[in-house]
Amino acid sequence: MANALTHKRVLQIAVPIVLSNATVPILGVVDTGVVGQLGQAAPIGAVGIGAIILTAFYWIFGFLRMGTAGLTAQAAGAEDDVEVAVLLSRALLVGFAAGAVMILGQIPLFWLAFKISPASPEVESLAREYMQIRVWSAPATIALYGIIGWLIAQERTRGVFAIQVLMNGVNIGLDILFVLHLDYGVAGVGWATFIAEWGGLALGLWLCRDAFAGDGWRDKARVFDLPRLRNMAVVNTDILIRSVLLQAIFVSFLFWGADFGDVQLAANQILLQFLNVTAYALDGFAAAAESLVGQALGARNRARLRRGAILTSGWGGAICAGLALVFAIAGPCLIDTMTTATDVQFAARHYLPYMVAAPIVGVGAWMLDGIFIGATRTRDMRNMMIVSALAYFLAVLPLMWLFGNHGLWIGLLFSFVVRGIALGLRYPSLEAAANAPIFASEIGPKF
What we know:
Layout: H1 7-36, H2 41-59, H3 63-77, H4 81-104, H5 106-116, H6 121-134, H7 138-153, H8 157-181, H9 186-207, H10 220-223, H11 226-258, H12 262-298, H13 302-338, H14 342-374, H15 378-403, H16 405-433
Helix pairs in contact: 1-2, 1-8, 1-12, 2-6, 3-4, 3-7, 3-11, 3-12, 4-7, 6-9, 7-9, 8-9, 11-15, 11-16, 12-13, 12-14, 13-14, 14-16, 15-16
């Protein structure tokens, strides 16, 4: 692993993640396009709602990627190769166990999902057919979160890109074969994804083969060491709470936006796609922060930690400034390509300045998330998200009453600012931790 912290090293970590993220929307387009060739509306809706439901359940376990990345980066920085291998074993065990729970609990889980989001009998029947196939790849999907975090921690993001390309390539190819040539319909889309997800896990395990070369990964005493397992549970629980609060902000944003009418709701939904683009673009540099900061903390090197934080944040800031400029110049044209409804176009352009401002006011929170994940300062992440969520809910209600949909957008941006400032105030203690002596059993946050 290279020693110097350079711009080139940051880009080598970040760019494969950005490219990997860029492939994600392609699969959704192909899934929709293939079932669209069946000439009926129900299959399109079934695949759409089925994918959304499963993604929502899988999202709960997203903590496994972030938690594994931070803990593994620190173990790698401390040159504890056995702990690096053991962390992969723990992540795989959590992934397989969580997937098994989903398979066993699929009947009540799917029942609950359709109670919350009901569909027509035909769509629900087809969606269940699709989901009952895909749920059997839940162990692979969730375990892959851990593998991806493990690879990111060691700067092996080209492997992450390879996994994404393989999964999407296999999925797209089998979509076309199963649906258009073998006439399997919605079930064909489900089987294509099932095979692609297990194929992704197989490639991921192959990329991690060096961890299985020694005996550390199967050292039961180390794998099931209670203090380490407890620490892993604390880290992942903190991240889960933080993620749930963040999701609550965005869900409430969408629900409250509906109160201002269909046009405003549609405009808000279009503009949120600009925010998604920003998140995808920044994700690579946040991942670089996770890896470099975690390694520096594991090595107890404060100077390297600071340089890693500065380099990755500098690139994140540059990307956000560039996106703000793109949104300001090309935003109206981008809006017009996403909708032909003139009233929605007008409304989205009216609120476009908030999307120009969002990358600028949000970059601090987003990059500090990566830094704090790498340092596994998840208690701070959780607490500062609580502060941010409280600030949002306390501010947005009077703001909406005073300024309508403008107040809703101001409240959302305000939550970004509060989270960035709150995490920024905790950053000095993160750096200070790099000077403290550490033992293998002490990696992670303490209560």
